[in-house]
Amino acid sequence: RQTLHLRRWVLGACGMHPDHQEALKKNRVVLAKQLLLSELLEHLLEKDIITLEMREHIQAKVGSFSQNVELLNLLPKRGPQAFDAFCVALRETKQGHLEDLLLTTLSGLQHALPPLSCDYDLSLSFPMCESCPPHKQPRLSPAPSCFVSQKVSTDWLSSVGISLY
Asked: Is position 91 within any domain?
């Protein structure tokens, strides 16, 4: 059970922030009904949020609602930058009303949550974020803002006696 929890944490470190996921979830039906995908997918492809194969998979669905649902299923798995890139793509494709809806929801979520406290044992070593400058302290929250590589995470977990596989 501990292995599964840690595996979710490690994999989640490279996923979308939970607040961003919740904003997408709370607006899922509106987005599924109103998104106009043709140009939007090209923006997401350009920003490496989706791959060519993902675009083809989305476009293979029958009907715009099903295509939109498929994109909404993929977005939370596409990294911590996916939400911001999606919002920019909405703005650039003249769907700013949907971006506004997401940002309003996000703002409400962030005001409703209490501030996170750091109650970790700081004597333990944590995986380092590869893109964090060395002069800054790494974030120790469950959802770091930068990527934790699979190798670093796996090595670190192995060093403390936990296997993901």
From this structure: yes
